[in-house]
């Protein structure tokens, strides 16, 4: 089967990151992609004596032959993703879709200051909720507008679809 999708059904903490890293080493995919909401929760992977708490990139980065991709619709906090790229050393093999919405500081501040979100809904304080509201209004910045991300911008659905069409193994890790 050329495409494996790892999705959770219990609102997080099911071990998706561990499954993604395990399958990435076992199945040797050419592409590993992160899908889902964004940096509201983390996936943990232990690799070469280090522990990585990843909130943006796929735990499948451990497959050193694979492209690491972030699909359209995944909320991107540029500070978080750039830090993860540096810590994992994947700068030469990561691609970020130009349509990824951007979490800005104002979204984080809205998230943390909302009494409604804190007491009624619950929030991670990462800005995902307010950013998604702005996305629904179609006024959010996109990855293609952020200079610091320019070198990583690529058409992620095209890469994944071409890989599947060519019989390559692809792993998609949900959030």
From TrEMBL:
Classification via PROSITE patterns: ADENYLOSUCCIN_SYN_1 (PS01266)
EC number: 6.3.4.4
Transmembrane segments: none
Example GO biological process: 'de novo' AMP biosynthetic process
Catalytic reaction(s) noted: IMP + L-aspartate + GTP = N(6)-(1,2-dicarboxyethyl)-AMP + GDP + phosphate + 2 H(+)
Assigned keywords, A-Z: GTP-binding, Ligase, Magnesium, Metal-binding, Nucleotide-binding, Purine biosynthesis
Protein family per UniProt: Belongs to the adenylosuccinate synthetase family.
Region (Disordered), start-end ranges: 111-134
Pathway membership, UniProt: Purine metabolism; AMP biosynthesis via de novo pathway; AMP from IMP: step 1/2
Record's protein name: Adenylosuccinate synthetase
Entry-linked Pfam families: Adenylsucc_synt
Cellular component terms per the entry's GO annotation: cytoplasm
InterPro entries: Adenylosuccin_syn_GTP-bd, Adenylosuccinate_synth_dom1, Adenylosuccinate_synth_dom2, Adenylosuccinate_synthetase, P-loop_NTPase
GO molecular function: adenylosuccinate synthase activity; GTP binding; metal ion binding
Top-rank EC class of the record's enzyme: ligase
Biological role stated in the UniProt entry: Plays an important role in the de novo pathway of purine nucleotide biosynthesis.
Upper taxonomic lineage: Archaea, Methanobacteriati, Methanobacteriota, candidate division MSBL1
UniProt source species: candidate division MSBL1 archaeon SCGC-AAA259B11
Domain of life, per lineage: Archaea
């Amino acid at each position: 089967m050329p495409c494996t999708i790892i999705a959770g059904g219990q609102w997080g903490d099911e071990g998706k990151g561990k499954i993604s890293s395990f399958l990435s080493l076992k199945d040797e995919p050419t592409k590993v992609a992160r899908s889902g909401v964004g940096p509201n929760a983390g996936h943990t992977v232990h690799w070469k004596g280090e522990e990585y708490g990843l909130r943006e990139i796929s735990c499948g980065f451990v497959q050193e032959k694979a492209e690491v991709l972030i699909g359209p619709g995944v909320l991107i906090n540029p500070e978080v993703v750039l830090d993860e790229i540096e810590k994992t050393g994947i700068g030469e093999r990561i691609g970020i879709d130009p349509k990824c919405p951007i979490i800005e500081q104002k979204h984080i501040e809205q998230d943390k200051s909302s009494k409604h979100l804190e007491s009624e809904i619950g929030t991670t304080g990462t800005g995902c909720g307010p950013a998604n509201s702005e996305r629904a209004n179609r006024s959010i910045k996109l990855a293609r507008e952020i200079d610091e991300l320019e070198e990583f911008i690529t058409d992620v659905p095209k890469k994944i679809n071409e890989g599947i069409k060519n019989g390559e193994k692809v792993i998609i890790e949900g959030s």
